[in-house]
Amino acid sequence: MSDQPHVAAVCGSLREESYTRKALRIALDAAEETGASVDLIDLRSLDLPVFDPDDEDAGDAAELRDRIGQADSILLGTPVYHGSYSSVLKTALDYCGFDEFEHKTIGLLCVAGGSFPVTSLDHLRSVCRSLNAWVLPHQAALPRARTKFDGESLREESDRDRVRTLGQRAVEYASIEPDPPYIESTENVGAD
After folding, report:
1. What CATH superfamily is the domain 6-178?
2. Cα–Cα distance between 130 and 35 in angstroms, integer?
3. What backbone torsions phi and psi does residue 79 show, to the nearest 5 degrees?
4. How does pLDDT run across 83-100, given as a tens digit for each residue?
5. Which residues 6+ apart lie within 8 Å of 50 measured at CB?
6. Domain residue spans in the chain?
7. What gap in Å lies between CA 149 and CA 104, rounded to an integer?
8. For residues 169 and 136, is the Cβ–Cβ distance under 8 A?
9. What string of H, E and C letters represents the secondary structure of 147-166?
10. pTM for the whole thing?
11. 105 Cβ neighbours under 8 A, 6+ residues apart
């Protein structure tokens, strides 16, 4: 890791006016203000077909792995679909593995149309743990997202604070020493 941490955010929304993307930009602004270089990986701009293990380099998979691999901390942002995270984010994660995530600091963010967005964060936390990543205890959830934004800004100070704190923590903990491997990661050595 260089003296300046690098934070990448993966936007798991394809919607043009995505609340997830807006929230990740706020988190990345806070990360940049805290001293990091940043990269918003907008999955709308990458060609990532449904993952096929016989074609691990399909489309822009190599670019995705490279950009995530360069990060010291990674923010994963998703809209909530049926109580979990988006299929586009799942596809992106399927193209990655230990090389991109092991011993990295991960921050989680979700937005929901309804009022219960937490299960998607729990699901992402499990995925990251299986890759032996260190997931920040702080996470940001924005329920009823359509009421939260005024343009590109969050209306409520408490929402801004939660999202900005996620970006700040991604920088502050970018160089944390990882714990010994989780049982999930030692048992998840790949499906051949």
Report:
1. Flavodoxin domain (3.40.50.360)
2. 29
3. -80, 160
4. 999 999 999 999 999 999
5. 91
6. 6-178
7. 30
8. yes
9. HCEECCEECCHHHHHHHHHH
10. 0.91
11. 72, 73, 74, 133, 134, 135, 136, 170, 173, 174, 176
